[in-house]
Each structure stands twice: as C-alpha cells, then as structure tokens.
Amino acid sequence: MDPVLDNLDLYWDGFLRSLSIIGWSLVGSLLLGTLIAAFRVSPVASLRAFGSAWVTVVRNCPLTIVLFFMAFGLPELGINTSFYVFGVGGLIIYTSAFVCEAIRSGINSVSAGQAEAARAIGLPFTQTLTQVVLPQALRATVPPLGSVQIAMFKNSAVVGAFGVGGDLWSAGRNLTSAQGYAYIPVLTGVAIGYLVITLTGGALLAVIERKVAIAR
Amino acid sequence: MSQTSVLYDAPGPRAVRRARIGTALAILAFLGLAVLVVLRLADRGQFDAELWNPWINPSDDTFSQVWELVGKGLAATLIAASLAIVLSLVVGVLLGVARMMLGRGLRVPVVAWIELFRGLPVVVTIVFVWRAMVEIGIDVGPLPGEPALWYLVIGLTLYNSVIIAEILRAGVGSLPSGQREAALAVGLTNGQAMRSILLPQAFRVMLPALISQLVVVLKDTSLVAVIGLGYLELLRRGNQISQNLDNPIQSLLIVGTIFILINYGLSKLAEYVERRMGRASVSSAGADDQVPAGQGA
C-alpha cells in the first residue's frame, strides 16, 4: 500500500475535490429537479409536456453522452468554460431527471382523500398545500431522493474519469500513468475514497429516514 | 391527472382560462428559447450540409461507411449488455440466495461482498477489473471475443449482480410470510421451500425491476468511452466518426437518440409487464434502499 500512504496528501486533495463536485451537483440537481417536478404537476399543459419530455430524454440517455454533449457540443456553440463546470453541469442535468421522478412519486403517494378532507374542513388552497399535502409528500420523498443522490455520488466518479482534474480519480490516474505506480494499490486507494463517501452517505440517509419516517 | 387532483380542486371556468393563458405563455417561452438555440446553431454553421450529409444523405460517400460503423458499435453494445445481464442474473441469484439462506456467521462475507460492490462506482469497478487482471496476468484469451469485452462484462457483472441479489431479496421479502410457513408445514426443507415456492414467485415480482436494470447495464456499457478501455461500442464508434468528420453535435445526437430509443422501449416494456402482472412490483414494495430504476450512469 506504499503508493497510497506516500501520497496521502494527493488523495486527500482529490477526496476534497470529489466532495466539491458532489456538493455542487447535490444542490444543483435538487433545485433543477424540483423545478422540473413542479412543471410536471403544474396545471399548465405545456409545462407538463416539457417536464415529461425532459425526464424521458435525460433518463434514457447515458450520463457519458450527456457529458460528451456538454464538453464537445457546447464549445461548438461558442460556449467555453472549464471541464469542471461542464462536468458538474452534466451531472446536475442527468440527476435532475431522477430527482424529479422521486419528488413526483412523493406527491403522488399522498392520497387524494387528505387534500379533500382539508378542503372539506374549509382550509384554503395555500393551507391545504402547506399544512396537509406538502409535509406528507416531502417525508415520502426522502427515501427515493436519498437513493438518487447516493447514485449521484457514485456517478461523480464518471465525471472524474471524464477529466475534471484534481479529483480522486485523477489522483489515481496521476499516480499510475505519470508516476508509474502499480494499478492495484493505487486503485484500491481510489476505491476506498469512494466507499467512504457512499457508505457515509448511506448511513446519513438512514438516520434522516428514521427521523422523518411516517407511521402509516 | 390523478397527481394534480391531490393538489388542486377541479378547475372552474376562471382557473381553466388562467391555465390556458399559462399554457400559451409557456409555449411562447419555449418557442423563443428554441428559436434562440436554432439561430445560434445556424450562426455557428451547425446545419451545414457537410456536417449532416454523412448521417442523412444516402448519396454521400461516407453514408454507408458511417452507418456500418454505427451498426458494429450497436452490436458491440448489445453483446456486452446481454452478456453482462445474463451473467449478473446467474451470479446475482446465487448471491441473493446465499444471503437469505446462510446462517448468521456464514452470511457475513456475502453481505460484505454485496455492500462493497454496491458502494463502489461501477466505473471504478470496471477499471479495477481491467487493470488488476492485466497486472496479475489473468488471461481472458481463451474466452471468445476480445479481452476488452470481458473486462467490461466482468466489471458490469460485479456491480449488477449484487443489485440483482438485492432485488431478489426484496422480491422474496415482499411475499406473504404464509408462503414459506405453509411450505415448511407440508414438510419441505428450507432449500426446497426457497427453490420451489419462494423463488418462482419472487422472479415474477422482480421481472419489471430486472428489465429496468437492463437499461442501467445498457447505459453503463458506454462508460468505456471515458476510461479508454479499447472496446469499440456505440459511443466510442460515434466519437470515432465525429473525430474524423469533425461533427460532434450531429454524431452525439444520432448516438444519443439510438440509446434513448432502446432504453425508452425497455422502460415501456417494464411498465407494461408491471401493469400486466397487476400487483406491486419490487420497486414499490419496500426495496427503497436500492438504486431507483434506470439510474446508474
């Protein structure tokens, strides 16, 4: 394990860089996914159509193709920025489709009787939404949303392999191809880095799920 | 529109009018956006015939060549995906049954194996398999096909087999407990109950989830394009073409559309199977800790 122990600082920097990719993608995909979900349940038909088209296209397209589009398609249109922004942008777009579906399934899981009962006792629309429907919907959304985000943590490795630079993945690439270390110990280090991220994420999610679980 | 009925009252005449106005405004906004994009594309010469002709004009010299390459790539993608899903199914069922049937102590390594490969990004697994097998000197030469295919297939199998093992476990878990109790009561052993009572029912329940997993496998074959593994599947063929013809947008559009069409068909098939079986599938029956259908990469 010498290659890993001798280069712990390189791994640490890569780890932090990977966390920053994950952090931005988390925030971005939640925002974009919520927006698309709002489109998909809105009373405006054209927004609904746009929302389902977005989900259908993005969900069935490999992340790699989304990334290639960002990095090689956008420059053709005169949009040039760093690979980091392209990579994070691609990951946000890709994850947003899954976030949207998780949120929509949460809203759908609230039975219509809940809203009907709220209206029957005379609550206005805003109170029906904020006091009755949304609190239940958000709780039901947590488990699927959590799995989506943990899958995104793993997909951040694809963004790394794509060539963002400076993350866990490139730490491994740097050590093997530039410095000539053997692959097995170096890649074991990379794998441990990702395992720390996904297993911690999973444990955190379990805690949150227990906190918000509804007894139904 | 069942989901809107939770959030809204049945709309009255004013709300209907407002929704129509909103629809019109949104259509205008999308059209405006589309026009902007098209103008930009035209401005950068992205509609030039030389970029599109190899793809859409049969009289272009490269037309047949380009589509032949795409055909080869698609075949390579489908071969890798089918090998991976079949192997994953076999290994996954073994892992899943082992996890359910072994005793507390014996189960530990199986659970560790499953958690390990479920937590690793599949792209890391594939590279690891590839590099480690080369470094240790495990020869995949005797297997049919090129070595790169097997690195990819083994990597995909390691990841997807543990997912299938978990889908299977959730499928068995979703069966009423009376099934197993009745089997034991009529004198079947644990193994017999699993083999002839629980697994056949679990397979039925997990069929939609399995088809969705095929979408994941198909998408994940394209990972070879970012790690430089020399297996020329659809996306790598597309990149090859776009490098030669210098038309990345057009080539990616075609390749992406092929992927989307296949995966869309598979998703629809999964939905259809789920509806036909007329009962809750694994994905909605408590396996909430698995990767939601279709994600992956």
UniProtKB/TrEMBL annotation, chain B:
It is a multi-pass membrane protein. Its main location: membrane. It comes from the Bacteria. Pfam families: BPD_transp_1. Residues 74-270 form the ABC transmembrane type-1 domain. The keyword Transmembrane applies. The keyword Membrane applies. Belongs to the binding-protein-dependent transport system permease family. This is Amino acid ABC transporter permease. It comes from Nocardioides cremeus.
